[in-house]
Amino acid sequence: xxxxxxxxxxxxxxxxxxxxxxxxxxxxxxxxxxxxxxxxxxxxxxxxxxxxxxxxxxxxxxxxxxxxxxxxxxxxxxxxxxxxxxxxxxxxxxxxxxxxxxxxxxxxxxxxxxxxxxxxxxxxxxxxxxxxxxxxxxxxxxxxxxxxxxxxxxxxxxxxxxxxxxxxxxxxxxxxxxxxxxxxxxxxxxxxxxxxxxxxxxxxxxxxxxxxxxxxxxxxxxxxxx
Length: 226
Description:
Elements: E1 8-11, E2 51-53, E3 59-61, E4 66-68, E5 71-73, E6 80-84, E7 90-92, E8 99-101, E9 111-120, E10 125-127, E11 131-136, E12 144-148, E13 163-171, E14 179-183, E15 190-193, E16 199-209, E17 221-225
Parallel strand pairs: 1-12, 3-11
Antiparallel strand pairs: 2-5, 4-8, 6-9, 7-8, 9-10, 9-11, 12-15, 13-14, 13-16, 16-17
């Protein structure tokens, strides 16, 4: 049977925020369905200027895709992004601010420090605090790594501008989810569920907005922990 540590599956979340007609919308982490990460730290400017928010994951697992995309609010039109101290194994999209890539086994143990992502609307500029990404080895056999796409639309097709995060659901049977993990950062789209006992596990994810409204479930993925 396939080891759980080898599981890297996409949970399709895009466009599933249900019953949020006309609401503008845009998170990570917890353990065993209880813990929650702190919120993102915004860099704010004067009214009408640019603000950038997001809390990046500070570890990247060798052989597992890493993704971080900050969120930006601006009243001055189109925004372009820039990065300093970009890891060699990662790509950066100056149009969306997405930092993504898959570190190799030869990167294990390395730290990529002083990474900063900035956003500019041509008038003002905002920068996230510097962060460090440490590359770690593959998760142990009692862990499952999951990643997903951030939704961009409400169920009615309107833009999603107020996404606040995700809830990861999992359990020992299909659609019988006994555990939840609140992921309170819309910029984080990967999570490692650790310390799983041997057995079968099924996973799905929902998104939620600032009003606490949840989307429908994503597609389900499953694996076996030996």
